[in-house]
Amino acid sequence: MCKPHEASFLQNPTLFFSGLINVDGDLWKSQRRYLLKQKLGMRHWGAGMSQAESRIEHEAARLLDTLHREFDVKTPVNPAPLINCAVSNVICSMVMSTRFEHDNAEFQQFMHNFDEGFQLFCDTGLMMWLPFFKIMPGISNAVEKLKTNRNEMLKFVQKIISEHKQRLDLNNPRDLVDSYLIIIEKMKNDSSNNNESSLDSNEEIFHGFDPELQLQQIILDLFSAGVETLKTSLLWSIIYMLHYPKVMKKVQAELDANIGPNRLPNVKDVNQLVYTKATIYEIMRRSSIVPMGTTHSTER
Q1: Which end of the chain has less Cβ packing within 10 Å, N or C?
Q2: Which residues contact 108 (CB under 8 A, 6 or more apart)?
Q3: Cα separation of 235 and 36, whole Å?
Q4: What is the tens place of the pLDDT at every residue in 177-221?
Q5: What pLDDT is stored for residue 162 in this prediction?
């Protein structure tokens, strides 16, 4: 039986034992439970998933509009940064109630560090089984670059958290960051009032780990898990459509017949889009989304 484990950090110093992806035990359980309870920040949007769907549709429409306005149909374009921005903005709306334009320099650097980080993890992956590789020149350089990138990303996240602190309303949380900050604020109040019973109850979420550092890594984990996987899936879809134009035409014909030109597809349309759904599943089956996977160790 395997699970993410603390020992992975001892073998690979590019990993950090906080957040959600690289933790285990009680901390992993409590963080996972809390994130599900908060619906990754959507709890404050009201009942149902219609708000989430509308935000996804909004970002999809913005993506198509940007492609139409800023790029000529005869000019080759790399869609990765645009898709990166669109997917990221869906995550941003849930986690931090904000969005970024694809040409925002600060956001571009943040996402560049993410992309580079995934590439560097491929170079350092062997350290999970052969720790002595960390002294190899190429590997040690990759480790240092990963640490530098992470520090830059943390500065970006810290700025977001700082802005939330300034506008925090304890009675009206807007997103996931607000929810965590309210818990942290209650912990501070309980501690100053020596209210041990309330403090113990709140500490069960963090289990002795620094709450704000945990929040910072949670944000990074949600980006890495939510953005990179979906962005890569969409890019593989474009590649396969270019290589299999007959399939692309069949998908387009089904969309034209069931959706039409005046709106975007939504969840209710899935049952009518049989061929499109099968095509997406086949692309996901054949493509390589997370080749190295996350770190695991034997539990028993």
Answers
A1: C
A2: 81, 102
A3: 28
A4: 999 999 999 888 876 665 554 444 445 788 888 899 999 999 998
A5: 95
For the four alpha carbons of 186, 182, 29 and 151, in that order, the dihedral sign comes to negative
DSSP letter assigned to residue 47: S
- The pLDDT of residue 46 is 65
Compute the C-alpha angle 153/128/297, nearest 5°: 100
8 A C-beta contact, residue 208 and residue 216: no
Q: What is the pLDDT of residue 193?
A: 63
Kindly report the pTM of this predicted structure: 0.79
Beta strands 2-3; 297-298: pairing state? antiparallel
Residues of the chain with pLDDT under 70: 1-17, 46-49, 125-129, 191-203, 290-299
The answer to whether 237 and 231 are in contact (CB under 8 A) is: no
Q: Is the dihedral of CA 248, 253, 255, 256 positive or negative?
A: positive
Scanning the structure block, which residue is given the tokens 């590789």?
133
Residue with tokens 């480790």: 143
pLDDT attached to residue 298: 67
**Amino acid in position 108:** Q
Burial track 253-268 (b if 16+ CB lie within 10 A, e otherwise): ebbeeebeeeeeeeee
Q: Which residue has the tokens 């395997």?
A: 2
Hey, is 3 helix, strand or coil?
A: strand
Given CA atoms 272, 273, 275, 280 in this order, what sign does their dihedral have? Answer: negative
* DSSP-based three-state secondary structure for 298: strand
Bridge partners (DSSP) listed for residue 3: 297
Q: What angle do CA 87, 93, 94 make, to 5 degrees?
A: 100
Beta strands in the chain (DSSP E): 2-3, 297-298
Tokens of 145: 């670059």
- Please, what CATH class does the domain formed by 2-227 belong to? mainly alpha
